[in-house]
Design goal:
elongated; alpha/beta
């Protein structure tokens, strides 16, 4: 069974409630849109549920809409369940009516009946079912209410018990006559592969996307069939004589569907309280106001980061202690098998220690940040962020949805790059991909927080130190957001010229979050996915780091030679050679930049952690660090090449090495220029 529906109607909740853990995700063939499949047993019968992308319409304008339409039309599901929001049923019925034109095996799942009850919206499900001619079931998917009745309706359809007749939208005498001219010939040509009436509508409308998909599925072009050619010509000439062009034809189809939706709602839905959405409107007047929207957004960002920073310290320390305690048993194992010391060094001091460091530093913040981020998404606040930032991105000739992908980048830039799939325009998707690393991921937080605490917030004591650190971190992030918008505009005026596409944004109703599901979904779908990619990249990095730190040329290690070579250029940027080398070797994972720097300064040959920030502060000061070094290191941490995990993701998403290299070059170039300007200005005015 196919599970369809508009975004934000609870489709995924229905899917998750039915399938539980019996599900997996993947990519649609030839597409970068993710699908989810899951199994469910009902009355000793197995059902395979396919969660197709959320879409408002089957008149395809995006990859998601194409996927949804093609699966319903050519995937031949035994049943299509269209999930609708009970609080805004009229808009959702548009998709229901379009689906019913393709197949008669449709069940309407009116979800969020509890929300409708709170808003005094009463829906006569029996009357709606009678008018549509299909099963209609009310559900509260969050609590599992009505799902058994839903599966009973699906089972009846899959057994072949189809409704005797269902509602057909009529489009006016001229259009109906033109459709009837084609139906007979189409039935012979299609041989039951697709609904002949619906295909006739699409032929007359001239829907190239659908006709291409139909040609791929059939293996031939319907328009070239000898029996159809004259009938298509005759039907189009009839429409032209009636004054109905391709554009007018599509408009009439849309108007007829909208009028039918309005008629159905007038009959079946009663609004006992006219201003049922008044509370949401009042909240939105504050959260999306030009005066208060941005400050509230920044304040929420501050709270999320403060919770992430303070909450990750203890679990990170415990995880590090546990992982690093395994080093001694592993070393004894290598001694037991009489392995050479350099083999033990590579695997234990190099690869394992790097892996342990990445996991212990990366996992706790992600395990806190991603649930908080998903919580805001579940409540319905993330679309408000996109709304608040849409004007800035539109002025940059970019897409408003870039705000959402940018927010995902705070947890992990790789996740943000994957999120760019939601942007339909290839040009704007590339802009969002290239600029995503301008917002710092949680891998860069440890470096930024440590430097802020040691050099700028150290004078404050107690809780005020963490508050001041978080305020400064928020300021750095705001700078990253500003850089994202500015670089997006630069790209849209140069190598990615174009006009921004329109941004149709739905502000979903506010809902009580499902905290348990939020935690599970964010841990499984985001945290562990990103951590897995990071681990795959970090292991080889540990090998390289150990080799550079332990192979001596003369009286210096290869690492020291490389740092010496980079030092003159790094000094221009307000850094030193060891700092720049730490960023280069930290390419696989930003979490290891500070440990590499400590190892380099102490010449220990292995990644090293100091007992406290005061010890690290003393070490940095002894190697010539000033406030300018700290500031430039923070700026370069904010703007430099994305990590190895993100680069792999960019390569996979764009399918292009050139765009991947450009995604490295753009933030790195911006960071070099910014550090050069800041360092030069500080020296010019005698501030250091």
């Amino acid at each position: 069974m196919a599970l369809a529906g508009n975004p934000n109607v609870g489709k995924s909740t229905v899917f998750n409630s039915l399938t539980g853990l019996h599900q997996h995700t993947g990519n649609w063939p030839g597409k970068t849109v993710t699908n989810a499949q899951g199994k469910y047993r009902y009355k000793n019968e197995s059902f395979l549920l396919v969660d197709i992308p959320g879409t408002y319409s089957l008149m395809a304008n995006s990859a998601e809409e194409e996927i949804a339409r093609d699966f319903i039309c050519f995937g031949h599901p035994d049943a299509v369940v269209v999930v609708a929001d009970a609080t805004c049923l009229e808009r959702n019925l548009n998709l229901v009516l379009q689906t019913m034109e393709i197949t008669s095996k449709v069940v309407l799942c009116v979800n969020l009946m509890d929300e409708a009850k709170k808003k005094k919206i009463r829906i006569d499900l029996d009357l709606l079912s009678s008018r549509l001619g299909i099963p209609v079931v009310g559900t509260n998917a969050r609590s599992g209410g009505g799902l058994d009745r839903l599966m009973e309706a699906v089972a009846s359809l899959s057994d072949g018990s189809l409704p005797e007749k269902h509602l057909h939208v009529t489009y006016g005498d001229e259009m109906e006559q033109a459709v009837s001219m084609l139906e007979g010939a189409l039935e012979d040509a299609l041989q039951g592969f697709a609904n002949s009436r619906w295909v006739a509508l699409k032929l007359l409308e001239g829907d190239e996307s659908l006709l291409c998909s139909l040609q791929d599925s059939l293996g031939f072009d319907l328009r070239e069939k000898e029996a159809l050619k004259p009938k298509i010509f005759e039907a189009r000439r009839f429409l032209e004589e009636a004054g109905i062009s391709h554009e007018a034809f599509r408009d009439r189809v849309v108007r007829a569907i909208v009028r039918t939706c309005e008629s159905l709602v007038r009959e079946a839905v009663t609004f006992e309280r006219r201003n049922y959405a008044e509370r949401e409107r009042k909240i939105d007047q504050i959260l999306t106001s030009r005066l208060t929207g941005i400050p509230i957004m920044v304040a929420l960002l501050f709270i999320v980061f403060w919770i992430t920073i303070t909450g990750a310290n203890v679990p990170s320390s415990l995880l590090a202690a546990g992982l690093f305690s395994l080093e001694e048993p592993l070393s004894r194992l290598f001694l037991f098998v009489s392995a050479p010391e350099w083999i033990r060094g590579i695997f234990v001091d190099g690869m394992f220690r790097t892996l342990a460091w990445v996991v212990s530093v990366m996992l706790p913040p992600m395990a806190i940040f991603f649930p908080l981020f998903t919580l805001l998404e579940d409540v319905g606040y993330l679309p408000r962020i996109a709304f608040n930032l849409d004007n800035f991105f539109r002025k940059a000739c970019a897409h408003g949805k870039q705000a959402l992908t940018m927010c995902m980048g705070f947890g992990c830039n790789a996740a943000g790059v994957i999120g760019c799939r939601i942007i339909d325009s290839p040009r704007e998707r590339l802009i969002a991909t290239i600029t995503n690393s301008f917002v710092p991921c949680n891998g860069r937080f440890p470096t930024l927080i440590a430097i802020i605490t040691m050099f700028f917030a150290g004078a404050a004591g107690g809780i005020w130190r963490s508050v001041l650190s978080t305020l400064m971190l928020t300021g750095v992030i705001v700078l990253g957001v500003a850089a994202t918008v500015w670089i997006s505009k630069l790209l849209s005026k140069t190598i990615l010229k174009g006009i921004p596409s329109s941004f149709h944004l739905e502000l979903p109703p506010y809902r009580r979050p499902q905290i348990g599901r939020v935690i599970v979904r964010s841990i499984l779908d985001r945290t562990l996915f990103v951590l897995g990619r990071a681990v795959a990249v970090a292991a080889p990095a540990g090998l390289v780091i150990w080799i550079l730190a332990n192979i001596q040329v003369g009286n210096m290690s290869l690492l020291a030679w490389c740092a010496g070579f980079l030092d003159p250029f790094a000094r221009l940027l307000g850094l030193d050679g060891f700092i720049l080398m730490a960023f280069i070797l930290g390419f696989p994972a930003n979490e290891i930049v500070v440990p590499i720097l400590i190892m380099s300064y102490l010449a220990t040959g292995t990644l090293t952690e100091l007992e406290s920030l005061s010890d690290l502060h003393a070490l940095l000061l002894s190697h010539g660090w000033t406030w300018l070094t700290a500031a430039c290191t923070m700026l370069f941490s904010l703007m430099h090449w994305p990590c190895g995990t993100t680069c792999l993701t960019i390569r996979k998403e764009t399918g292009s090495l050139i765009w991947t290299l450009l995604s490295l070059a753009v933030p790195t170039g911006a960071g070099i220029v910014l550090c050069l300007v800041v360092a030069s200005a500080a020296r010019l005015f005698g501030l250091v």
